[in-house]
Amino acid sequence: MLAFHPHLFVRIQELTGPRAPMPRPLDSGFVEDRLYRVLGMFNPSETSDAYFVLANDRDEMWFICQRHLRFGALVDTPQHHLPWVAQQAAD
Questions:
Q1: pTM for the complete prediction?
Q2: In the chain, N or C: fewer CB atoms in 10 Å?
């Protein structure tokens, strides 16, 4: 079973190299200095990876592998994108 908090935001930390999962978020309309609200999750049976449903900065919906993502924040807001400040991680 997959479940997530409705106020969950993640940040992009793209993996590189030949074995990095596709799609690569930085090539797909996402940026590293922003938090993205998790809209859904999917775990295909043929992989152990989970894919998070996120809306990029062009409001396109993408399934992004969890290996490209890091916890950003839990924020009760109607926004789907928030700025990420490095000091937030220390709070």
A1: 0.88
A2: N
